[in-house]
Amino acid sequence: MDSTFALLMQGFAVAGAPENLMIALIGCFLGTIVGLLPGLGPINGVAILLPIAFAMKLPPESALILLCAVYAGCEYGGRISAILLNVPGDAGAVMTTLDGYPMAKKGLAGPALSMSAMASFCGALVATLGIVLFAPLLAEWAIAFGPAEYFVLMVLALCCLGGLVGDSLPKAAIACLVGLLLSTVGIDSNSGVYRYTFDMLHLQDGIPFIVIVIGLFAVSEVMLMLQQAHAGTEPMAITGRLMFSLKEFMLAKWTMLRCSLAGFFIGVLPGAGATIASAMCYASERRMAGKDHQFGEGDVRGVAAPEAANNASANGSLVPMLTLGVPGSGTTAVMMGALTLYNITPGPTLFQDQPVIVWGLIASLFIANVMLLALNIPLIRVFVKFLSIPNWLLVPGVAAISMVGVYAVHGNTFDLVLGTLIGGAGYLLRVMNFPIAPFILGFVLGDMMEQNLRRALSISDGEIGVLFHSPIAIGLWIAAAAMLIGPRVLRFIESRRQRPATA
Amino acid sequence: MSERILGGVLLFVSIAGIWIARGFEAPFSYEPVGPRAFPILILALLGISAIALMLGSQSHNTVWAPPAVLKRIGALFLIVLIYAFLFDKLGFILATALMVIPVARFFGGGWKQAVAGGIGLGVGLFILFDRLLDVALPTGLWLNNLLG
């Protein structure tokens, strides 16, 4: 505990350097804007800024601070459009529309916004404390993992994500397998064999991570935005008081705390992300509120619950990425890709090998959230102005900035064209309801999975049984199977139970 | 129907991929599992999933956007593709301006807005990235000549 505190202080020294403070502030500001724009969420924000941070030659800890600030900012921003436009800025904010928009219609937009900012802060703070307490423990435990356990752990992560998102098992499986397959393109590092390069020079080092990310989260996003282009609705005006009252705060304080804790633990589990956390917390708070509530019609607890939960889970999902090197969500997979760009391999040894980076990142989360609270309550009117950026300026801007990022890193036309083609394919797959998170996770984990599998089999001299040898591995296999099949069985039982009632 | 077609394509990919993977042989090897096993494993699973996709329930079939919208999306894709091709040949400012104008039109901007947006974004982003943030962008031959 003592050493944790010392390390955290060391982290604050890194994150508190003037340059990094500035970067965090810029990241918070940009993140909030990206978050509030309908159609763009944390994954798009992180994806678009990642190559630019890399091209600006920011040192790794600064780049990570920027990305984390953007990530945290997006979670704050999503609620602004949810409350004022009834359109969630990102998927995690869907639940916030339920009570946020009714509050805005009642002329309580100000309190709704400040209450949700407070809840966001509470969620993020609880979750960051959770990271400080639990991440080092988890990392210590995971150090005992051998390559076989690692391989199975990654299988588990893919199963979790594949099992929870989307309805169709084949589609989830295909998404993650195609991701894994694309990760094998390029020279095999063990043997020097060229795999699926089709004699193209540019593919020798594999498909660059940035190209995939920009294709999927910028190019295909822009195409989806054209498909979903809806008539611009006017945001509700903020009239009257800006701050929530003490009475409202007292009403929501336990809600915030409960949802923050629940959100953190949901976030730590791979696969379950901010969307699930906010939906679950909203539903349970509504049930716990008893008869005397206005949920659905503009209850402050109805904005506090989902916002606390979604921020807590967004921060919580950093835990498996930092400690195990196995991200549990699409956004953290992109962030892990960012680490690998800097030749930093996340995993249990990260806490020992790179304490500056890890603790700097954790400290920057504290700092970023204080900044975000400070930005989001008094400056809320400034952010609201960004809601009126017209799509005709925003969309081509996004396209241009993402190309800048790809070009800046590799400087060749091939990558730009490849990214666009991947974006086109990504659009088709997304319209066909293929989940995108398992794909990106598969691509990020592919190489490590193969390496660990080969290492495990080298140790056992090719005997497959090694994968099922240790109790940890067996437990992970069982968990993987349960994650893959469990949700579907539950849904099946549910539908069986409901059918006689409706017939 | 879209699911069946895609399933067929993926099944073909998996078979072709396994065919290609047979040739992945390490010249010398000191490990029991070579470069071939993992891709073949993945491709085999992909093939099985593709068959499951083709045979599975077609009740949640894809609903595509109406043809008029699809045409616009296709056009948008082509514009971005051309933009990617011309990015360093025309230089950032010109290529961006040319990309922004039609895309802005697609998203409901007027002609004046589109042209102003194109020039504004091209010049503005160039100054922001190339001059202020030190992210080198292509100037294009024409501007190089102009600047001497």
List key phrases describing it.
heterodimer, A: 503 residues, two-stranded antiparallel ribbon, 21 helices, B: 148 residues, 6 helices, flat
The average pLDDT of chain A is 84
- Strand pairing plus helix content of chain A: what structural class? mainly alpha
Low-pLDDT runs of 5+ residues of chain A are: none
Share of helix among residues of chain A?
over 70%
Radius of gyration of chain B: 24 Å
Largest chain-chain contact? A-B, 67 and 71 residues
Spell out the helices and strands of chain A N to C: HHHHHHHHEEHHHHHHHHHHHHH
The end-to-end span of chain A amounts to 59 Å
How many H/I helical runs of chain B? 6
Number of helices of chain A: 21
Summarize the structure.
The complex is a heterodimer of chains A (503) and B (148). Chain A is an all-alpha fold.
Kindly describe this structure:
The complex is a heterodimer of chains A (503) and B (148). Chain A is mainly α. Chain A has one domain. Chain A is built from 21 helices and two strands. A two-stranded antiparallel ribbon of chain A has the order 1-2. In chain A, helix 3 runs parallel beside helix 14 and helix 10 packs across helix 11. The longest helix of chain A has 34 residues. Chain A is globular and about 70 Å long. The model of chain A has no long low-confidence stretch (mean pLDDT 84). Chain B has 148 residues and is mostly helical. Chain B folds into two domains: 54 residues; 81 residues, no CATH class. Chain B is built from six helices and no strands. Chain B is flat, with a radius of gyration of 24 Å. The model of chain B has no long low-confidence stretch (mean pLDDT 85).
